[in-house]
Specification:
This protein is mainly alpha-helical. It has 8 helices and 3 strands; from the N terminus they run H-H-H-H-H-E-E-E-H-H-H. It has one domain. Helices cover 70% and strands 5% of the residues. Helix 7 packs antiparallel against helix 8. The longest helix is centred in the first third of the chain and has 42 residues.
Amino acid sequence: MDSIILGISQSISLVVQVVAYVMTFIIILEFVNNTLIWFGDRIGVENMTIEFLFSYVFYPFAFIMGARPEDCLFIGELLGIRIFSLAIVAYPKLGPIIQNGMAYRSHIAESVNNTWTAVGNNILLDNLNQTLVGGVIDQRSEIIATYALCGSASFAVMGLIIGSFEVIVPHRIGEITEHIFRAMIAGTVASYLTACFAGLLYEEEVGTY
């Protein structure tokens, strides 16, 4: 009974902390975004969000992994969101772009007469009068981004792990905080290396949708 009660007590604490940490980092992301937009409006920079800054900071990583240069800003944005918060925040931004790619390639493959028009960052499929919001990225870039975002190495998870182990083994929290940042770097590099190999081994001619 003592083990059951202790397990229930620790489980409740862990669940509460998981929800709290996820919500906190999403809220922080929105707060930073709104602050940057407010500041950008006053210095003449339109739509200056944290995603905009991430896209330039992580551009070199996306390029080194093998993504098409035209796609590196978008992938860099996703990498920044993932390392700041969680993959579950970044993947919903990637999903619609992959769906756009499927629709675009299907439309083009149906007939040589099927044309498209670029409208800003969007693509208009002329024959269908359908707009692909956000445009498309290269198939190899899709694969690289999918693997690069996979994993749990992020600042949000760092906080989550520290809080979780503080409940389970509070006497060893010093060791955890000492090594956790290096562990996050190692996890991030592992995801990036996986993306590198995925891009290297991907063959476009056999990639079907």
